[in-house]
């Protein structure tokens, strides 16, 4: 597959020039592939280049720039780079301006920023993460309806963030997990792995330490999501 992308990249560079947005699109796909095989430094370089090309072609506040920034931010977050949080903030700002504060893409940016800030461990950031996830949940419920798997995923993320930040008691956290489990059960049936995972978290929540919860909160539904969305939820290109 890497060879396929390299060939496609070479063809587009020869035909369109290295600074064309379509070349950046292929470069992004190649960067995603490199990231999955652990070649993170090469992937980072390609993501940064793609951001620059999209900015030159479309302007700094274009939705395509936000997507490119998101890809870079997710990669850097995985590497533990502090720059990731600020990039997620920039992505969110662009999406709020370009597609609106109540768009699903904005909800993705909110979730990404929340997961990045939650990882810092500071109390203020933990509280911010909860607020960001609450807003993402509200958007998804309004747009997708209360019984959508992405809404369930938002409940899971919110419960995990509340537990890590100590912003809710065990009963409140359990209620969020149970709500997610109810949605997943109604869609996929009681034997689906997503249902079992949520129920397991519900049972473990009172005894989990922060590091365990941080790992668990990477769980999410991947149905209907783009590659950048998969990365934000812990799935490599998400």
Give me a quick take on this structure.
The protein is mainly α and 238 residues long. Helix content is 76%, strand content 0%. It folds into two domains: 1-83, Tetratricopeptide repeat domain (Serine Threonine Protein Phosphatase 5, Tetratricopeptide repeat, Alpha Horseshoe), CATH 1.25.40; 101-238, Alpha Horseshoe (Serine Threonine Protein Phosphatase 5, Tetratricopeptide repeat), CATH 1.25.40.
CATH homology group of the largest domain:
Tetratricopeptide repeat domain
Mean pLDDT over the residues? 82
Q: Report how far apart the termini are.
A: 18 Å
Tally of helical runs: 12
The CATH topology of the largest domain is: Serine Threonine Protein Phosphatase 5, Tetratricopeptide repeat
* β-strand amount: under 5%
Largest sheet: none
Range of helix content: over 70%
What's the shape? elongated
Q: Please give the number of β-strands.
A: 0
Tally of domains = 2
Would you kindly provide a written description of the structure presented here, covering whatever features stand out?
- By secondary structure, the protein is mostly helical.
- It has 2 domains: 1-83, Alpha Horseshoe (Serine Threonine Protein Phosphatase 5, Tetratricopeptide repeat); 101-238, Tetratricopeptide repeat domain (Serine Threonine Protein Phosphatase 5, Tetratricopeptide repeat).
- It has helices at 2-16, 21-36, 40-58, 63-78, 83-98, 104-118, 123-144, 149-165, 170-188, 193-204, 210-216, 227-232.
- The radius of gyration is 18 Å and the shape is elongated.
- The protein starts with a helix and ends in a 6-residue tail after the last helix.
- It is found in: Cytoplasm.
- GO terms for molecular function: kinesin binding.
- This is Kinesin light chain.
- Keywords: Cytoplasm, Repeat, TPR repeat.
